[in-house]
């Protein structure tokens, strides 16, 4: 799983699941945050993420939370139990683009503060 900050100068991301917390990560333009994992055998793995678009004075400008990985996203990324695939979330001014294989092939999945597209 890759999170790529394409346009936001001060982005804070927080990833967690029922069992794990990857903590807060502060990103700037062109930063990438990634980690590896596999879907569990019950296919119930879900990772949630909160995104905070911060202003220069460190006040929250926009905030949104959604699952960055679950059964539906696994199907979109082609993730199988026995095979490792790359899944990308590209963060832009207008929202969050999901793609497999290449960040440039993403489609807008969520917008800032407006939920699922």
Summarize the structure.
The chain has 117 residues and is mainly beta. The chain has one helix at residues 71-77; strands spanning 2-5, 11-16, 21-27, 32-34, 47-54, 60-69, 87-92, 95-100, 107-111, 115-116.
Overview of the molecule:
There is one protein chain. By secondary structure, the chain is mainly β. The chain has one domain (2-116): Immunoglobulin-like, CATH 2.60.40. The protein contains 1 helix and 10 strands; from the N terminus they run E-E-E-E-E-E-H-E-E-E-E. The chain has one helix spanning 71-77, and strands at 2-5, 11-16, 21-27, 32-34, 47-54, 60-69, 87-92, 95-100, 107-111, 115-116.
What does the radius of gyration come to?
14 Å
Percent helix, as a range, is under 10%
**Which parts are unreliable, with pLDDT below 50 for 5 consecutive residues or more?**
none
Mean pLDDT: 82
Give the CATH level 1 class.
Answer: Mainly Beta
What is the overall number of helices? Answer: 1
Name the strands of the widest sheet in spatial order.
4-1-7-8-9-10
